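Session log. Operator J.P. requested a structure for one protein chain; no other inputs attached. Running the standard single-chain path with token output.
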Amino acid sequence: MSIVVFHFFFSMPVLPPAHLPHFIVIDTCVLMSNVLRHLLFRLAQAGYFHPVWAEYIGVEWRRNASRIWNVTPEILDVEWLKMQQQFPLANMGDVSAYETGLKRSDKKDWHVIAAARAIQQKHPESTTCILTRNIKDFHRAEIRNLGLYLYDPDQFLVMCWENHQAHMQALLELIPADALKIGRQAEPLETVLKRERLFRLNKLTLQQQALQFEPAL
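Structure written below.
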């Protein structure tokens, strides 16, 4: 069965959308962070957005996780299956047909853009973004001309904070407990956020803490 790929060329605003995008394509490099993965999935479970990936993103994640974390492929296969069960509409499957016409972004990341185009074709009325640490590998004009948004985790989580601050605070408080569950030592939130390169989010949390402890006049 042939797949017809529609090319979307919109006049995109310079500023990000006022609300969170409806669909978030999560790149492998983001999924590789336990902190980011748990936080994003909890935000998605709250209904703030829908996570999206493709089969090859799963292949990359399992391969890299097995090598870096020294975990057997069988365990990661089970974890990947759990992710599909948790978000049954997230996996766009084989999206290679949606790589047609891509030229200016790094070729090794075309599958990520293709996943975004696949969900965009299903829901053209909704906003779709790519969430990646490797911003430089995506050609901004190409992404913009496809009607897509591009964020790094810090940018996106700051948007989540601005839209849902109370819930974000509650979710961030779960991070130390997540470390304990996998046998690691709990660390101060500031330490974790800095290590994850979430510098703007960390600044917002510190500002909020300062307000909470500021004496009333």
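Operator note: The first helix runs from residue 28 to 31.
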